[in-house]
Amino acid sequence: MNWKSCSIGLLLVMFSAVVHAAVKAAEPQRHWAYQPVVRPALPTVRQSTWPRNELDRFILAKLEAKGLVPSPEADPRTLIRRLYFDLLGLPPSPEEVAAFERACSPVGNRPSAVGNLVDRLLASPRYGERWARHWLDIAHYADTHGFERDQLRPNAWRYRDYVIASLNADQPYDQFLREQIAGDILALNSKPETQSSKLIAATGFLAAGPWDFVGQIETKSDVLKRAARADDLDDMVTQVLTASMGVTINCARCHDHKLDPISQREYYGLWAVFAGVKRGDRELDPAAAARRETERKQLQTRLREVTSELARLTGEGLDLADMVGGGNGRGTGTKGAGLDLRTGNVVKDKLGYHRDIQLNRLQEPEWPDANAPKFVQWLFVPDGKAPVPVASQTTVTNLPPTSGHAWDAIRNGALNAQVSTRLDGVDFATNGHSVLGLHANAGITFNLAEIRKASGFAKLRFTAVLGFGAAASAASSRADFSVFAGRELLFQKLKLRKDESVRVDVALPDAAATLTLVATDGGDGIGSDLLFLGDARLSLTVEAQPLAAADRARIETLRAEEKQLATALAAKAEGEKVYAVTSSEPPVVRLLRRGNPEDAQEEVAPAVLACVKHAPADFTRAKTEGERRLALAEWITHPANPLTRRVLVNRLWHHHFGVGLVDTPSDFGKGGGMPSHPELLDWLAEEFLARGWSVKAMHRLICTSAVYRQRSSTFQSRDVRATPGLDIGMSSYRDSANRLLWRQHPRRLDAESTRDAVLAVSGKLNLAAGGPGYRDFKYTEAYAPIYNYVTAETPDQWRRSIYRFVVRTTPHTFLTTLDCPNPANLTPARTATTTALQALALSNNEFILQQAQHLATRIENETDSREAAIRRAFALTFQRDATAAELQAATPLVAEQGLFALCRMLINANEFVYLD
Amino acid sequence: MNASFPCGQQKRFVTRRDFLWELGGGLGGVALAALVNEAQAATSPLAPKAGHHPAKARAVIQIFCPGGLSHVDSWDWKPELAARTGKPFDTTGTVQFFASKPGNCQGSYWPFRQHGQCGRWISDLFPKFAACVDDVAFIHSMQSRSALHGPAMFMANSGFILPGFPSMGAWVTYGLGSESENLPAFVVLPDPRGLPPGGVINWGAGFLPAVHQGTPLNTDLELPPIADLFPPKNFAGITPAGEASGRNFLQTLNRQHAAARVGNTELDARIAAYELAARMQLSAPEVTDLRGESAATKQLYTLADEDIGPFGRQCLLARRLVERGVRFVQIFCGAENTGAKKIRPNWDSHEDLVRDHGYWGRVLDTGAAALLHDLKACGLLDSTLVICTSEFGRQPGAQGKGRDHNAGAFTAWLAGGGIKDGTSYGTTDELGSKAEAHPAYSYDLHATALHLLGVDHERLSFYHNGVPRRLTDVHGHVIREILA
Known about the structure:
The complex is a heterodimer of chains A (916) and B (484). Chain A is an alpha+beta fold and 916 residues long.
């Protein structure tokens, strides 16, 4: 547990901070990052022709002060590759490179060509997809809960799409933050409705991290629940404060922060802000949800009228659930009673899991009352693999294979663990209705001969509503349902979802001696397969009844209307949801001594940090928990907040240069790095405000600067000779880490960019934007769901990596090997490692080989000679012409092993994954 | 090649240069050898590193029993509990376990007997292992900070109950690098039934560079031992000769590219990585090919048994990996609560402890005893630390025919690599419900293991989001009482 964490460790940081922080320990509040942002004067520089905009002067002034010189501008091909990957995460096409090279010539046109290119890239929808990745790293976004029972979050993607859309729209950053912290509250006062949906989706930010189902819900121990909730709140507070302000707030969970002037009490003050926040699926548009509910109610009311009238006209049927309870079909059976699948005994108590049950064996019910009607003839548990007997001398082969496990009993009423008896708005547990509980895997056979004899009905019709009695929160488990008359399959619904229901209405053949109902597990185990039938009835078919022509016509009309109503209801089943926050009445928050949830101390009211003094946060007017969050959001995004703007412009700098002006992007405290260019950081923060918190304006400023456009190489002897006075060898010597940016940093593509680039050059990249993520795994529901990765060759699998459905417990092996971070962590900066396993993955992974094959096919279609094919392969992968030596080396490779081998190796080349 | 790999006698190329000549394809020759060595030494995060003090152990084999192994039915003898069987455990009616209210006291389902020179009490669940107790040190006072599988698994493996922290194997390779050039430094052998609770991140690198994450070794003979070691079967057209000439072409491109970018050592490191990958293609299949093992060895690990065999094979593979210089091997004896046939797929025996522990007991007993015997016979036990643990224990108060989770007490044992033979540390209370003397957490177990590897757990740290993180958080004491 995290309580007690940090103390000794932080002493070490303290020590190192003393070494490199030029701050007096006695005055923690004087730490540079807490001081107001002040627009610095532009420095004067000697080499006045080098700067392309103001920010370059800050860089050059430092270089000149150290006797260093900047590097020359990179060539157009290097520049366009850098800008494409940086802003879009994709390579340019050879044609785009050529066009840009033309636009850059003569040299005097280059500034406008670069500016135009940057504008074009920033306007591309691909830009938001690329930069959303950086933000989602900070939000530790994923599409499953994590921990032991790593269940799906099928609606999480709407938050991911919100981030992409916000970035593409260049939504002002302060508003972007406010929406993510308190969008649901802003939505209350917003019009029109589309805006409200967007605002609610934004709060997916607070819910993006891991969440422990077992600790929050499943365990019966309150101690364990409190511990899980404490981690939950810590996760939210930490994410909001580190993402927006670079404050390592979690260090104050168990004691006052060891380095920064943050008290433990302030930490719990922030807890109090979030104390009423829970994670869960939330309707995007509450107004639409209410409308839909009204419409559903109207439809349901009409449906009840229709079915009642039908029942009256056609004669009340015989109730099958009642027969399961030992009755005659007219309400004489025992409510709640069940038939034990193993013994046929009548049971009142709820039963549990049956693993060691004999399969495909017909079991007769053992009625305690010898005079009870013998309408239920057989019970069985089908394995679906061998022929399954449904009655003596009668077997069926069209059942899906099953796990052979079973749960509880077949019941005249709700099953063990059944949480709902409602389907299509009707509660079948109420008077006049019936529930026949039939959990997978189980089958029941009714004796039609006996039923016909007792009822006098000759021509029978079977009707029922079929659905699940499982909790809506349960994952999307599937189950199947089949109806047989004798061995004839009359009805089958495979892979029924938990949120679906089906109306069954079939006429039974005259010759059929038995009616069999079978529930099977849908191939994913029997977890939550709480199937039940509402109003399972046998009635006399209309055709067989002596009815007046008018009644007969009326019945036809009603039947048609019944069908329409059922379809309309199904269409209104569920609205659009997002996995985000749900509000509840916030409980009292107390300071937890040493972070221990079982050691609560004095009450703590919502509050913010005192070390940042730009503005007070007003919680007194916050009547609801949401208004607390809004007050915090206003405080964080206050124009005078010294951290928020500095942190963001530094994050942008980090991604444009590979390292930030502060090299610890989520830690602006005393344990973090000092800014390499403090004045530049403040100048950028001021520009950011002056430009209306526009992120795109900052991108443009940075990407068109001279410092960004430098070459990345360390050694440029030819240029040194050509430019008297420049001595790059000296720069390399004096600032080998390049903190002063006398050159651009070369960079390797991250995992997602590598995958996207491979798809881009193979020609298979599917640019379908938004919507549920692509699932590159086979999902099996179990107590703990199982995710098995597969490499399918379908276009939906070729979408950009930002649209991948991210599983927490089972990370994607290929991408993880390429340094894709674990979404358990807030990741402000990625690591880049170089390993033999990466070489194996890029050489042999099925995805890579498939795409190399597609690339080869693409090239074959686009060229007509071996040499042209080789040239095209280099052009597509490296965005340049092949050299004579490369042509010579590639020719025998292609001759012996085909174009595929060349394509595979080019994707593996350093030049493919490194940017100059 | 196997004939020259008898137990403990790993074939070694005389020099790296020899190795490269033998390898044939690729660049070949002295220049490459020098390049690979230099690039590796300069940039490889897995280059062998000196510890903080001389090490007793060179490698670790950790057997992890997920689900919660019941200490009171196995290694922690509680005669008082046996005496109180059938009497109420909680007279106050206030105790709430993870999933149940406690039933009556329930003594061990297996009788305990004394074994070995040290006279250790071991239950009849582990008859073979009982013969090894003189080589083993037990920690009876282990505790966890969570009684939930997910968080407790994370704690046992990474020192934190939250996901996202580096696992012990990752920390060890981060601290010490790799001794094997041709195999991953940290290898994981998951249970063939599936992943443990919490999934792959139990052997993740957390915020450490990804190079330190555990590499799962596939124990399915139909598949290559390491993911992507070879192209999949549907790319059968790729031939070994073709691979060599393809790589040759690639490295030619890469060297030309690097030549124009002098000073960028990352490029050299990546060139070296492709050569190392080629070596791994030779080494990894050799590890999993058991044809060279004697019939006696196969018998020792009971490989032919349908139930015990898979775990026996994992244990044998662990010995072979350590023999070949792998630093850290983690074996999982059990999976997550997924689709099992007859029994629970791990030690989480809520409803029928005799059935489930009975099954898993035979598995662990045979494999662990075989591993200890074999390591000893090969002369590897002295330099290999063997650890066996679970994420928590089980309750002395019954839950029907099973037992509920118990974070208050469990037992871990260690053997080999600098461990004092036939000893024990810490005790639980008279019923085995809570640690009493010398309570210990994963911090202490990890600190002790790191100490034996020559690493000071307080000095092994990595800066992440404001904190220099450690495997042992801000805790941990080396348990000197169990050191030789």
